[in-house]
Amino acid sequence: MADRDDYKREDDEEADEEVENDYKSQNDAIILAIDVSDTMLEQPPASTSRKADKDSAVQAALKCAYQLMQQRIIASPKDMMGILFFGTEKSKFQEHSGRSGLGYPHCYLHIDLDIPAAEDVKALKALVEDEEDEDGVLIPSTTEKVQMANVFFCANQIFTTKAANYSSRRLFILTDNDSPHPSDKAAKSAAAVRAKDLYDLGVNIELFPITRGDNEFDLANFYDDIIYRDANAEANHSEVRYSKTADGLSLLNSLISNINSKQVAKRALFSSVPLEIAPGLRISIKGYNILHRQEPARSCYVWLEGEKPQIVAGETTRISEDTARTVEKSETKKAYKFGAEYIYFSPEDQKRAKDFGPPIIRIIGFKSRAHIPFWASVKKSTFIFPSEEDFVGSTRVFSALWQKLLKSNKVAIAWCIIRANATPVLSAIIPSHESTEESNATPFLPAGLWLYPLPFADDLRGGPATDGTEPPRASNELVDQMRVIVQQLQLPKAMYNPTRYPNPGLQWHYKILQALALEEEVPEVPEDLTLPKHKAINKRSGGYLQDWAETLQEETQKTAKTTKTKREADDDADDVKPAKKVKASSTKPSASGMTDAQVRAAATAGSLTKMVVADLKDLLAMKGLSISVHLNEQDHSKSLEIQCEGKRSYGLLGGTQPRSKRSYVAYSSVRSMVLQQDAYTLSATSSAFAMSYLKGFRIRLSPWSRSIPRAHRCLHLAPPFLLDDYVPRYTMLSSVDAAMKRSKAYAHLRNCSLCPRLCGVNRYETTGHCLVGDKAKVNVIAPHFGEEPCIQGHNGSGAVFFSGCNLRCVFCQNHGIAHQRNGQNLTPEDLGELYLKLQDVGGVHNINLVTPEHVAPQVALSILHARDLGLRLPIIYNTSSFDSLESLELMDGLVDIYLPDFKVWEKATSKRLLKADDYASTARGSIKAMHAQVGDLCFTPDGIAKKGVLVRHLVMPGKEEEGKRIMQFLAEEVSKDCFVNVMEQYHPDAHVGKPRRRQGGKAAGSDISAESLRYSDINRAVSDQEVTSLRSAAEAVGLWRFCDPPKHDGFNI
Fold first, then answer.
1. Three-state secondary structure call for residue 604
2. Which residues, other chains included, contact 441 with Cβ-Cβ below 8 Å and sequence gap of 6+?
3. % of the chain at pLDDT higher than 90
4. Which InterPro entries match (predicted)?
């Protein structure tokens, strides 16, 4: 139940949400105490009846407990349940408590009180279905009787240690013995004391007596002193119900029915709200959600690296859409959109705007029940019941109001505010009948009053528009025949009872989960009690249905004849309409059924240009292509998009003026796709035919295209490096491999060995050389257009610039990002969600991780998280090559493209300029490991790189000899097909060219000579001669794939 003053909360930011979300769920803890005695274990007499009992009372109680456990796992997954046998030969208590079972003789705790786990279900199933009692649990005591005081004291200890804070704690006693201590008054007195202790603790004792045949269970013998029955209790079924066999009802079904009748009120919507019946007359009530749609529990993320799985708690970080900066909560305001404007509210203004007074339900009048139509409820109804907490006598006044409304067949109209900051709701207060009354149409619902929300004028919507014609009506004969059919097919007692129809989708979901958890065979077909029983339907009303169908067919034919006669009469009355003009046959060629020869002839004659767009679409569809046409309103040109095999290619621009070379490149890329009739080459005839084919689009080609040879390889790409399609490597990882990578990532963070510096620190506690802890620090996340053309494409590369670095390059071209450590700390989950945003919102070609060497574990975890969220873009690992082999092993299977830099060759140079002695040897090993994983750079037909290694080398002043050694290494030890980008954009940055530090007390900055500047030997740009020399050396050793501007139509790939 909700706390007494729960509605008095002042800080309610989400006050405009649904009212039913503002409840406090009441957790329930139940211990089933089952009597194990000779009479309870006695088998029922043999019978030929199918409905006769086949189970002993203990077996029926265990089966009932098994079903109850399954129900609670579905409907109440946070509730606890335990099973305690009493009267057994063996004794057992909680093993971890340090107290042996001897403290509670003949009490055996079979399943400890806890949220049911798979092991508990297995243990109970072994007793219920397999009837396995290997431990001899179900053997009754032969030496002495069990003391009920011990049973109650044992239950007291269990509730105290396992469910101390649960708001509902109940002890269910299942027994057939109405007098466990017939002649021992001391034992009776001790049991009553222990029962009183349980009630003082807040534990309710519920008795489920079992009777067979003519035997009677007399409560007065013992249990009248144990069971406290409050006449003013809020439960509708406060009397003790007997479980027995009668009228074809088995003992098991009787037990299940009785236990289900003791369901605790689970949805306390509000507590102690005043109900004002008249001015000055108020009572206190509580509200419950009696009807609540049950849905499968939501899936959750769990951490599997601990001793047992733990649920992962998520944190929300708000990111600015344009700058990717983290936005603090204090920087935001709550606003409402009014037209095109945003109206901002301060918290105080918002409270005042929503303040309609304290919670109250005020009756403003009464109406006949017939005035409330069935469609008037805009929300589900709330069951209300009296509470004596604030106003003594509320129960009597409430009962008088309920009985008066029932007797007068009236409803009350009330103005309701059921919680603070809630908007007023107009509701009808409708009474429900007692469950025992024959007139009650809902005996499965409690008796009392219901708040039935009514619509306001703003809630009404218009119905479908009609043309004013009267729809056909069924004849009286049809209605009479259908009435007989309905009477034959009525549900039992002519009402729908939801307790008879479990949700098949919900049950099937948990059946599968249970089968997997218990390692059982997964059932093939779900059990669905809502399916119609066709045999029974045909048996009860088959003949009536056939007669009704024949009558319906006859009336339909009569109605059709009448309508046709009326239409003919209307047509005769109209004037003669003039004949339609016959359109002259068109001389334009038709695309339907044209052969290749006809297409060539039409292209030669120029008649393709006369075709309309629809004909062109038909023509392309014949060849497996499709187009979409868009009109540009500014220059009145058309943009055609050709799709080949369902994949979108570039647009073809046509207009009155020649486009730029980019338009030509786009055209040639599409042309290459259209011309690709075999694997990689075209004949001159096919090329000419396709060129003629495209003439019909009226595409104005740029001057460059006129000089292209007809027979030309379409993508200027050797076959081994062309991919028809590509699926990122991380999408093919199995769940086992993904779990192993997560485990390795966490291990790296606990003992960092990501780079050759081998700091070995615990990143959760401190930082190493990179000065970054367990969270990745990110400077910028945005589409980036500063990469190689095959990487950035037309939509950009989704760049993630990480702050920090494990090198200390004195000339760092990204000094502000790598060494100043600006940015935001992000978890792997945050990173994964931002990858999704780059994919879905930015539309980028790939995810480009820039300087990730020192955050490789966080990167691996973020990729796996993004994969689960739906990421499908290639991953680029943009690195300095100062990686350890362990780090690259972690990235194997997650990275599609490696973009390593190979900066310098000599050890002395790396020590002086990179502050790393072993850079060159590390880079050689890293690049070879990268190439072993993904191979040479490969592309899809759109010219975008998808997989492989692209090595960058920044040409530096005076270091061309080291560059030549690097090129030789790539050709001889990696691959002559290695794709290389010889970069010439070096410029003095970071520490290069800065004044030297003070020496001898004199500021070096006062002398502007070269000697006074730091790293003066590289304090200049590179020359053309240096770049040309290095390029020639690369070609001389056999390298041929370079990132150069193309000399042909398309990307140079």
1. helix
2. 433, 495
3. 22
4. Aldolase_TIM, DNA_bd_Ku70/Ku80, Ku70, Ku70_bridge/pillars_dom_sf, KU70_core_dom, Ku_C, Ku_N, MJ0674-like
Helix (H/G/I), strand (E/B), else coil: 963 = helix
Q: Which of 340-344, 657-661, 1020-1024 has the lowest mean pLDDT?
A: 657-661
CA distance 55 to 108: 22
> CA torsion angle for 1025, 1027, 1029, 1032 (degrees, to 10)?
-140
In angstroms, the CA 11 to CA 385 distance is 28
HEC profile for 618-633? Answer: HHHHHCCEEEEEEEEC
Phi (first) and psi of residue 352, to 5 degrees: -65, -35
**What are the backbone angles phi and psi of residue 425, rounded to the nearest 5°?**
-130, 135
Give me Rg for the CA atoms of the chain: 41
Which residues partner with 171 through β-bridges? 31, 205
Indicate whether 651 pLDDT > 80.
Answer: no
Residue-range domain boundaries for the chain: 25-263, 270-295+353-459, 719-754+773-994+1011-1037
Tens of pLDDT along 50-62? Answer: 667 778 888 888 8
Distance of CA 260 to the CA centre of its chain: 33
pLDDT (tens digit, 9 = 90+) per residue, 761-818? Answer: 888 777 777 778 888 889 889 999 889 999 998 889 999 999 888 888 888 877 767 6
- On whether the 270-295+353-459 domain is CATH 3.10.20.30, my answer is no
CB 966 within 8 A of CB 905: yes
**What SS3 state is found at 334?**
strand
DSSP class of residue 795? Answer: T
Contact 85, 59 (CB under 8 A): no
Q: Copy the structure tokens of residue 602.
A: 């039409």
Size (the chain), residues: 1053
Q: In terms of pTM, does the model score above 0.85?
A: no
Nearest to 210 by CA among 181, 177, 239, 179: 177
Name the amino acid, one letter, at 35: D
| CATH architecture of the domain with residue range 25-263 | 3-Layer(aba) Sandwich (3.40)
Q: Nearest CA to 6 among 383, 419, 351, 413?
A: 419
Expressed in percent and rounded to 5, the helix, strand and coil fractions of the chain are 35, 20, 45
Distance CA 88, CA 92 (A): 10
- Residue 655, judged by CB atoms within 10 A of its CB (0-12, 13-18, 19+), counts as middle
342 backbone dihedrals φ, ψ, rounded to 5°: -110, 125
CATH homologous superfamily of domain 719-754+773-994+1011-1037?
Answer: Aldolase class I (3.20.20.70)
CA–CA dist 982, 967 (Å, integer):
10
In whole angstroms, give the CA distance from residue 164 to residue 27. Answer: 11
What tokens were used for 291?
Answer: 């009807």
CB 42: neighbour CB atoms within 10 A? 13
Residue 476 has φ and ψ, to the nearest 5°, of -60, -35
Contact residues for 447 (Cβ-Cβ < 8 A; gap 6+): 236, 402, 432, 433, 434, 435, 440
> What is d(CA 1052, CA 1040) in angstroms, rounded to the nearest whole number?
12
Give the containing element (helix H, strand E) for 640.
Answer: strand 637-644
| Separation CA 291–CA 266 (nearest Å) | 10
Say which residues have a Cβ less than 8 Å from residue 306's Cβ, sequence separation at least 6. Answer: none
The CA distance from 429 to 452, in Å, is 6
Q: What does residue 670 show for φ and ψ, rounded to 5 degrees?
A: -70, -40
The mean per-residue pLDDT over the stretch 948-955 comes to 94
The Cβ-side half-sphere exposure at 21, using a 13 Å CA radius, reads 7
Torsion of CA 791, 792, 798, 804, to 10 degrees: 70
Nearest to 55 by CA among 253, 246, 241, 208: 253
Give the integer Cα–Cα distance in Å for 434 and 796.
70
Question: Using a CB cutoff of 8 Å and minimum separation of 24, what contacts does 701-707 make?
Answer: 701/664, 701/667, 702/658, 702/659, 702/660, 702/661, 702/663, 702/664, 702/667, 703/658, 704/661, 704/664, 704/1049, 705/664, 705/667, 705/668, 705/1049
